[in-house]
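Hi R.,

Here are the chain sequences for the assembly we discussed:
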Amino acid sequence: MQLIDQAKVKKNMQSRLTKNNILKGVFFGATLFALVVLVILLYRIFTQGIGYLDLQFFQNFASRFPEKAGIKAAFFGSLWVMAVIAPVSLIIGVGTAIYLEEYAKKNRFTTFIQLNISNLAGVPSIVFGLLGLTVFVRMLEMGRSVLAGGLTMSLLILPIIVVAAQEAIRSVPKELREASFAMGATKWQTIRRVVLPASIPGILTGGILALSRAIGETAPLLMIGALTFVAYLPENLLSGFTVMPIQIFNWTSRPQTEFHDVAAAGIIVLLVMLLIMNSIAVLIRNKFSKRL
Amino acid sequence: MERSIRQMIKDKKEKQKTRLNFMEKLVPGLLLLCAILSVLTTLGIVFTLIVETFTFFNRVSIIEFFTNKDWYPFFEGDPDYGIWPLISGTLMITGIAMLVAIPFGLAAAIYLSEYATDRVRRFIKPILEVLAGIPTIVYGFFALTFVTPVLQNVIPSLPVFNALSPGIVVGIMIIPMVASLSEDAMSSVPNAIREGALGLGATRFEVAVKVVLPAALSGIIASFVLAISRAIGETMIVTVAGGATPKLTMDVTESIQTMTSYIVQVSLGDAGFGTTIYYSIYAVGMTLFLFTLIMNLIAQYISRRFREEY
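And here is the predicted structure of the full complex:
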């Protein structure tokens, strides 16, 4: 007696295999969709913006005439804001991470801080803008300044930096710490001379990625009241300012299509800057990832 | 002589010890302050939103806020403050975005985790990362200057500002998020389970859909919920391409306004500090914050409660 009907199995198998192959193609196609969108997006922006991208574009301030409009104020504004964000968010973020990983006891309070950080990462950026507007601009009377904008953005990217730094610190092998303690080092000496140097590549990579998030962020700074038409460079931390995404937003929302091309040129500058920052992050990661 | 050198060494040791002890005591305190700052940020957000929202509800009744079906704060004589048009605009964008992001994101996750070779994965994952790293203002520009004109070719009556185009682009923006979180969930399903199913004669598709997907379901659903939260809070794409006409409608081709784009509109305009319009952004911000908070809590609950432990 034959227990298996070979013909039936063959027929059944064939359709199942075909189904598998077709759906494999569908899934692959869906994955490629992301690639296609990326290519179209980059192609559109480069063909639109390349015509306006010349030396003058970096030397001119905002203007009512598309051919005279430049990104100088926004470019330097972005650098100024970064100069506030980088130290503030790195110091506080790494401090928090060290506390949570090295000092904190496993109790309710620690869990609460950890939960709080992950929830903070999910708060929309515009809500951080409302916070900055109320606390920094109004209550602390910083005005619509570089300082207020930088501090708001620092709070926004803090969760990203904390999580990255925690991972970096956690990945330092226990043996290194124990060796340091065995040599008579105190806890803080161990952290400062052993743990931090070993985790600095991870911290830097995470930090740069977080900064590149900050540099492209528009909404919170719009709330703070970064200006959209600026014809001067910031002179100190309390100057008014604009940043590249806001300048791009301003150009995009104008009805004249020439300004859309100017916006595309601005986007190219922004994307190139992001590309450079991300490349540095990847370089750091690759250079140091083999050591431990 | 000998004695004094010993004394000197001892003195130095003492001195160093006090300094070290001082640092050992001081540093944890300083670090704790850093950690507390993140809690203060949350408290700051909640506090500002609540206080300013209360100021708003002193001027506009909370009943009007939830029952009025019109949102016309800029009417000189008799402004209307009913939140529903902004909520419906936000949900419409979110709905369109999820229709794009869930199928593409999930398909990409299945492909990456069940079909792709290591080489393909190494090629595709960075592309998704790049897509996730593009600033939202760039997506907004893309929606306004590319997607809307393309859609206008298909639907000639489509106005320049509409819900469809930013909705689609928000969806594209969150594909990488859905894909990478879902893929993480699927990759954490142990290989032994896959091999068991393959050994019984299942095809890869059957393994993916009947074995891996159910096992990773909690993580996948959590990724959807997080994506919804992200879409609700998205600001620049809808501000650039969605228009500024709050209305209760189900028609995706119409111009709408979301909660986020209303807040931006007010902050760009010249509504002075202290006016009712100024306080209205906090009431809208509070609503937005509650929406995203609830979504995030649901995501955390799902991934904790329904996680399969292997």
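Chain A has a mean pLDDT of 86. Chain A touches chain B through 86 residues (CB under 8 Å).

Let me know if anything looks off.

Best,
T.
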